[in-house]
Design a protein that fits this description.
Blueprint (H helix, E strand, L loop, with lengths): L9 E5 L2 H10 L2 E2 L17 E6 L2 E7 L7 H14 L5 E10 L12 E4 L8 E3 L22 H17 L3 H11 L4 H4 L31 H4 L14 E8 L7 H11 L1 E5 L12 E8 L10 H18 L3 H7 L29 H11 L7 E6 L6 H12 L5 E6 L3 H12 L14 H12 L7 E6 L26 E6 L9 E4 L5 H11 L6 H11 L3 H14 L3 H21 L11 H14 L12 H13 L4 E3 L4 E3 L2 H12 L3 H13 L9 H23 L21 H20 L3 H18 L5 H16 L3 H17 L5 H17 L2 H19 L4 H16 L3 H14 L5 H20 L3 H19 L4 H16 L3 H19 L1 H4 L3 H14 L4 H19 L4 H33 L5 H24 L1
Parallel strand pairs: 1-4, 1-5, 5-10, 6-8, 7-8, 8-9, 11-14, 11-15, 12-13, 13-14
Antiparallel strand pairs: 2-3, 3-4, 5-9, 6-10, 16-17
Helix pairs in contact: 1-8, 3-8, 4-8, 10-11, 12-13, 12-22, 14-16, 16-18, 17-18, 21-22, 21-23, 23-24, 23-25, 24-25, 25-26, 25-27, 26-27, 27-28, 27-29, 28-29, 29-30, 29-31, 30-31, 31-32, 32-33, 33-34, 33-36, 34-36, 36-37, 37-38, 38-39
């Protein structure tokens, strides 16, 4: 019977062919083709071997031929984890270079197993950090430890080996006896071939190294370190594995790392696994990580490592695999279970049962087969749809493996809800936790689509926005419902059209008995029955209005008769407000719910001056929330330590008070702006949480500003506002908040939204303040920096000069003043004004060192700019020295230095590439990519830039398939992040098109021409039509045209030769071909010269 992807719990990674050969031999059973699972080969390019070891289903993969290192390993692992979601045990098994020391008597054929040591998880990446400065080694890339269940199994196995010895040699012998063809490659070499040379004895030409031969001279033997005979049985060592993108061949560096970190071996793949796919690294020692070539031990080293891996799987607890593999077990879907929680769920104080609706939900959604179930609860806002959904979820959550409550009020709130649930999914089933929000959302939807994950309940609450391109907060709900034929989905909505998605039920107003139950659950005093009946008739069976009235009655202590009087008074006020409104809210013809809330709102406003104080101190905010809760205007969300407001209440507040009273809009803007931490966190969970928590609110506030609603902050002109209402300090605060929101957008790569906000700040500032007001100058600096990054260099220069002269005029020399001058210097570099740039940057550097010190963030940022300047001037030695100085200054892992480290690593990659040090450039670009992915997520512009650089290097290395995949991925990312309308004005996106054109020019000329043409359509808009880049690109397009013309001529010549040619003409044809090639080269040369 065919296995399924979710049956596999062990992933086994190999790097080279011999490692995979011995891995297959460790299988107790290798599955035949008809037992192999189906894999989506369009998404997963790996080639797998499937089988069983003990009771574990094992999938084996190796790296693509000729492609080694951290990045390749990470790609292979990502594909495997995506295809096999139940993987819990991951092993990287193969060979490595040993790290012998006085403490660790490591010999060839020994086994190294990664294990945590104080301060490290078991693997360190040693080719990044202070090793770049050729001084002391300081590792700055830390890896996660292996999973706990594997650490426990390792401890069990180590104790067992100490008590009774291991069976490694016997396992290898058994393998060889059954496979005689492996005797040559995998037998243990003679002991004489295990020789450890002194660290100061190096070979400059490793191809001619024969140090491990048995015929060494006496002189050579004097360079060998004498060691006692230890027998043939391999030893197992637990500790640190050192990983990098290049082989360790320098004994002096090897010994320095051993002394500093107590590492046991060196290899090239582990760092690509540990943080995203925590694994155990198992390595057989085949050489001593020095310059002495020794291939003779590779087969045996691979075999002993594989044998240890098999012994380890013997002691991995059986439940880790058998409970997942057992198809007959009806509880198989338990592995997809996640704990039930009410976090983020608007739970009511008391639910009054509505039997008809509850029975509809049970009939439609409870799991009774594996068919997909979609049910739509539709009706007026406040009619009780949400509380019906909440009660159904609370009553029946035990019947589902997972329950996901999602806020569907906007696309941002929906994504944020999905991401919050991602952290609750078992870690081995979710791949990209901590990545950007869109990647995590896709991964959760993938998880919901897994074949045996079929008993979940997903609730979309408040899906009330019509999907339209004109509304950036709307979305097509169908794209968030898994297409697989399983799972239960409940949608609450006011939109009647959504009933087409599945079964539906229109929620009606409640009857008198239910209405009375809702009122008395809030208002517990005895009152006149006739008055109660009169009130409930006026509230028209709307549960939210009834609950609001009950909350007011309980809090205020007034009678229902008095409340009815207030109701009649406020009803007239509501009617007058509606007549003045440009927008009719037609949910409630008699406006009972609006009137009810107006009574409560006026009562709240009468409670001292609390509203304006909520931004002054957290204590005032907490007190205000308590008061609003008492009137049922907000609900507390204990698990998220926040508050929620019913969508209809929010709509009412905005309609009656947000639109009518701009002061509330200003207050909302302040609250959100002051919630943005400065400086903003870089990388990690805090970075992701910040984006999730604030982005929906910031999007809403900025949308009001950017849609032209200037009344939210200031009048159309200064004269639009009575002089008595102008509050200069308030205006300055609000503009400062808008500036912060612009910085937020720029930080997260939303550059066009940031630009619009900066422009609005300038517009408002110039209406109220002097031209050299600090707020205006700061914003001018930020806008100039943004323009410069977008290569709008003339606009940037204008802004930055304005900032510089303005700061100089008011006599301010602060951190931001010097930062503005540094930004101007950076812009001069991009403009090719190198002399002006150097003069400015050196002046700034000197002042920053005097004021802040040589290792201050601002100083190092200017040094990074100088490094880039010298690179552009082809002074690579100077540029490299400065980049290393920046890295040295980034010793402390604080947030700003993290950004500087990225800039310095990028500079080093550029320098190495220009010097032809391709492999070193690749290492730098890979490090930059990994750091940026961790800091910003995979879909940030900076991360995509590094991905494109790696693709460019791979193209130069001849890795054309890998290069194409990476450049295409970067280009698609730009389109997603920027939007199709902005891709043609983004330099890096245009560079990706150019790179694809160069890649395709060799074999796919038509596609190359299309890419060149797309790049040339946009590049003049950014760089100018006469810029060097545009000239070069036109030359590339013309050269491609000449080559195509030559190919056509050559093709016609070949056709004629096939008809008329004879064997005697072969030499003449060859000479003619060479002549044509010479003519082609000359034509291209002449064209370029012209």
């Amino acid at each position: 019977m065919r296995t399924r992807p979710e049956d596999y719990t062990v992933g086994w990674f190999c790097a080279i062919a011999i490692e995979r050969v011995v891995a297959r031999e460790m299988l107790d059973e290798e599955y035949a083709r008809d037992k192999e699972p189906y894999i989506d080969t369009l998404r997963d390019y790996n080639s797998y071997t499937f089988g069983r070891i003990y009771n574990h289903n094992v999938v084996i993969a190796s790296l693509p031929h000729g492609r080694y290192g951290v990045t390749s390993t990470a790609i292979v692992a990502a594909h495997m984890q995506s295809s096999f979601p139940a993987l819990r045990t991951r092993l990287m098994v193969g060979i490595a270079g040993g790290a012998p020391s006085k403490k660790h008597d490591i010999r060839l054929g020994d086994i190294i197993v990664s294990s945590p040591t104080p301060g490290y998880g078991g693997v360190i990446q040693y080719d990044f950090g202070k090793t770049l400065q050729k001084s002391e080694f300081e590792i700055t890339s830390h890896m996660a430890p292996p999973p706990d269940h594997l650490l426990a199994a390792m401890a069990h196995l180590e104790a067992k080996h100490k008590a009774s010895g291991h069976q490694i040699a016997q396992v290898v012998t058994s393998m060889l006896e059954g496979n005689p063809h492996l005797l040559v490659d995998c037998s243990r070499p003679e002991p004489e071939l295990d020789q450890l040379f002194r660290s100061d004895y190096n070979h400059t030409d490793q191809a001619k190294c024969n140090c491990q031969s048995t015929g060494n001279s006496d002189e050579t033997y004097r360079l060998i370190i004498s060691r006692s005979d230890r027998g043939d049985n391999p030893r197992i060592h637990y500790g640190l594995v050192a990983s990098a993108n290049q082989l360790m061949k320098d004994a002096s560096i090897r010994d320095a790392l051993i002394e500093r970190y107590d590492v046991l071996c060196f290899e090239m793949e582990a760092a690509g696994l540990m943080n995203s796919f925590p694994s155990v690294i198992i390595r057989g020692v085949c050489d001593y990580s020095d310059s002495h070539k020794n291939d003779k031990w590779q087969g045996y080293a691979a075999a002993v490592a594989a044998a240890y891996a098999k012994e380890l799987l013997r002691v991995v607890p059986a439940y880790e695999s058998t409970r997942i593999m057992d198809e007959a077990n009806p509880q198989m879907s338990n592995r997809f279970s996640i704990p039930f929680t009410l976090a983020g769920v608007p739970v009511t104080k008391k639910f009054i049962d509505r039997p008809v609706e509850m029975q509809c939900l049970r009939d439609a959604l409870l799991p009774d087969n594996n068919r997909r179930k979609i049910f739509v609860l539709r009706g007026l806002g406040g009619i009780g749809k949400t509380q019906l959904a909440v009660e159904f979820m609370r009553s029946h959550h035990t019947k589902f493996s997972a329950v996901l409550w999602l806020d569907g009020s906007s696309v941002d709130s929906l994504k944020q809800s999905i991401v919050q649930h991602a952290s609750r999914i078992p870690s081995n089933q979710i791949l990209n936790l901590g990545s950007d929000i869109d990647t995590v959302v896709k991964d959760v939807l993938r998880w919901l689509s897994l074949p045996n994950n079929n008993k979940w309940l997903m609730i979309f609450d408040n899906v009330d926005r019509e999907f339209a391109d004109s509304d950036p907060l709307s979305y097509d709900i169908r794209t968030y419902i898994p297409s697989n034929d399983h799972g239960s989905t409940l949608i609450t909505t006011r939109l009647a059209r959504l009933h087409k998605l599945g079964e539906s039920h229109a929620v009606e107003k409640v009857d008198y008995a239910t209405a009375q139950g809702i009122l008395t659950s809030w208002y517990r005093q005895k009152d006149d029955e006739a008055d109660m009946k009169d009130l409930l008739e006026k509230l028209d069976g709307l549960p939210l209005a009834i609950a609001q009235a009950g909350a007011y009655l309980e809090e205020s202590g007034i009678s229902i008769k008095t409340y009815l009087g207030l109701y009649e008074e406020q009803k007239q006020e509501v009617a007058e407000a509606l007549l003045k409104s440009d927008t009719l809210l037609d949910d409630y013809p008699n406006r009972s719910v609006w009137t009810t809330w107006n009574i409560s709102y006026n009562a709240v406003l009468a409670k001292n001056d609390w509203l304006g104080k909520i931004v002054e101190h957290e204590l005032f905010f907490i007190e205000a929330m308590g008061m609003l809760r008492s009137y049922s205007l907000v609900e507390s969300a204990i698990q998220t330590q926040g508050y929620s407001m019913h969508a209809v209440v929010h709509r009412w507040v905005y309609f009656f008070h947000g639109v009518q009273q701009p002061d509330l809009g200003w207050l909302a803007l302040k609250v959100i702006g002051f919630a943005v931490p400065m400086p903003m966190p870089i990388g990690g969970c805090e970075h992701v949480r910040l984006r999730q928590r604030l982005l929906p609110h910031i999007n809403m506030c900025s949308a009001k500003i950017l849609k032209g609603q200037k009344s939210l902050v200031w009048g159309e002109t200064q004269s639009d506002r009575p002089e008595s209402r102008i509050n200069i300090q308030e205006t300055e605060d609000l503009l400062a908040v808008m500036q912060i929101l612009g910085l937020f957008f720029a930080h997260f790569g939303k550059t066009y939204a940031a630009e619009e906000l900066y422009l609005r700040v300038l517009q408002g500032g110039e209406a109220f303040f002097e031209p050299n007001h600090v707020l205006i100058l700061e914003t001018t600096n930020y806008l100039g920096k943004l323009y410069s990054a977008q290569h709008r260099l003339d606009e940037a220069e204008k802004m930055l000069l304005r900032a510089r002269h303005g700061f100089k005029a008011i006599g301010v020399e602060s951190r931001i003043t010097l930062d503005a001058i540094c930004n101007l210097g950076r812009n001069y570099i991009r403009q090719g004004k190198f002399d002006e740039a150097e003069k400015l940057l050196e002046q700034v550097r000197q002042r920053q060192e005097e004021k802040f010190g040589p290792r201050d963030y601002s100083t190092l940022r200017t040094i990074t700019a100088l490094s880039y300047l010298y690179f552009q001037q082809h002074e690579h030695a100077k540029a490299e020295a400065l980049a290393r100085r920046v890295l040295q200054g980034c010793e402390q892992e604080t947030e700003p230095e993290h950004i500087l480290m990225l800039g310095a690593v990028d500079n080093l990659g550029n320098i190495y590439l220009a010097d032809g040090r391709i492999d070193e450039a690749e290492t730098m670009y890979q490090q930059a990519f990994l750091l940026k992915e961790e800091a910003f997520g995979p879909m940030h512009l900076a991360t995509l830039d590094s991905l494109g650089c790696i693709g460019h290097v791979n193209m130069l290395q001849g890795k054309l398939d890998e290069a194409e995949a990476m450049i295409l991925e970067a280009l698609q990312g730009y389109k997603q992040v920027l939007g199709p309308e902005h891709v043609e004005t983004n330099v890096q996106a245009l560079n990706s098109m150019w790179r694809l054109g160069s890649l395709y020019s060799r074999t796919r000329p038509n596609e190359a021409k299309a890419m060149y043409s797309q790049a040339l359509a946009g590049l003049p808009k950014v760089r100018g039509s006469s810029s060097d880049a545009c000239v070069k690109l036109r030359l590339c397009l013309k050269a491609l045209s000449i080559v195509n013309e030559h190919r056509n001529v050559d093709s016609g010549s070949n056709s004629r030769s096939e008809v008329h040619g004879t064997s005697g003409e072969a030499q003449t044809q060859e000479q003619e071909k060479k002549l044509q090639e010479q003519k082609l080269k000359q034509r291209i040369k002449d064209y370029f010269a012209s």
